[in-house]
Amino acid sequence: IEKDTVTRIYDLQPYAQYLVTLNGSKFDNISWRMHNQTMSVTVDPNQFKRIEVPVVVVGEASGQVYLRDKNTLRGQGRITIQFYKNDTVKISSTLTESDGYFSFMGLAPGDYLATIDPEQMRKLNMRATPAFIPFTVEPSVDGDYIYDLEFEIQSNAPVSIPVVTPAPATVPVTVPATETTPASAKKAIPAPVIATTPAKDTIPSAVIPKAAEPAPVPKTAAKDTVAPPLVQPPAGQKREPGVTPSKPEPAARVTESPVQSGYRLQFLVTDKPLDSGSTYFARLKKRLPILEITAIREEDGRYHYVSQHFRTRREALHWVRLVNGMGWEDCLLRWV
């Protein structure tokens, strides 16, 4: 094979018919495909016969399937994603991985629809949102890449709200002290002997000062219902000992934005930032217009030129292959 991709085969018998088998696994780009890998050729005498080998550049579509469980979302595996062309012709299908990620390569340029298998949803008694996602694979030398196909599935079963039956109210019953007197004591005081029994022995237990014991209960209740340590004194007044004011510190901590994590591609590390008019990444931006390159100054004081975040390692590795296929040898994969 020469540099102009022309292959010349010599010493063939004229007027003979040959079968030529082609192997596309050595292509520079994984998005280049051949539909016909075996061709029949009849050799002409005393000349080279030119044979054109058509190569089709295909695109890749990827996305994520999430399962909604109450107020949470998590990736769902083993879900069938189907791809249709012209709204009716089924092209192919693929399964989601354990984290809900799916990817399919082999789509020729054109308009497509991606949808979750409705038969699978019917068997699982679930529904998908949205029902389908339209997308377009644009013609490109390196192959187009669609990465934002996201579905959400949830069960059709009605949400059961547990009914809480209140426990029956328990009313405290106070037994009079006279009823707590043992029966034997009652029988030991016959009516005719009342006059001869000393007065101190005939006093019923209901009038004993112990009956005043329920009085401290309101004090205990008042102590439980009033919480002076939670009362914030008005401005300008002196705070009493033991009173703890409310602390506004936790609200101040949420002012900082959370750090986004994921995979990034690193293209360059410099001690000084590139000039605003630099064309260092012009070739990358021209071939991959959706690629975002940002300069970030890290703790080492150097400027790291990295891409946007990718949620999964597989998606990031796909971009690494695309960049390396263009001859960019300094592309690294980082987790941040």
Q: What letter string, H or E per element, gives the SSE order?
A: EEEEEEEEEEHEEEHHHHEHEEHE
CATH class of the domain at 58-155: Mainly Beta
Distance between the terminal alpha carbons, to the nearest Å?
A: 43 Å
How is the biggest beta sheet arranged?
5 strands, mixed
> In percent, how helical is the residue content?
10-25%
**DSSP E strands, number:** 17
Determine the CATH superfamily of the domain at 58-155: Immunoglobulins
CA-based shape: flat
The value of Rg in angstroms is 41 Å
Annotate the secondary structure layout.
Blueprint: E1 17-21, E2 32-33, E3 38-42, E4 56-57, E5 59-69, E6 72-75, E7 80-85, E8 89-95, E9 101-107, E10 110-116, H1 118-124, E11 126-129, E12 132-137, E13 145-155, H2 183-187, H3 199-202, H4 216-225, H5 249-253, E14 263-270, H6 282-287, E15 293-297, E16 303-307, H7 313-325, E17 332-335
Parallel strand pairs: 5-13
Antiparallel strand pairs: 1-3, 2-4, 5-6, 5-9, 7-8, 7-10, 10-12, 11-13, 14-16, 14-17, 15-16
Task: Characterise this structure.
- With 336 residues, the protein is an alpha+beta fold.
- The protein contains seven helices and 17 strands.
- Among the domains are: 17-56, no CATH class; 58-155, Sandwich (Immunoglobulin-like); 263-335.
- It has helices at 118-124, 183-187, 199-202, 216-225, 249-253, 282-287, 313-325, and strands spanning 17-21, 32-33, 38-42, 56-57, 59-69, 72-75, 80-85, 89-95, 101-107, 110-116, 126-129, 132-137, 145-155, 263-270, 293-297, 303-307, 332-335.
- Strands 5, 6, 9, 11 and 13 form a five-stranded mixed sheet that branches. Strands 8-7-10-12 form a four-stranded antiparallel sheet. A four-stranded antiparallel sheet has the order 15-16-14-17, with helices on one face.
- β7 (80-85) and β8 form a beta hairpin.
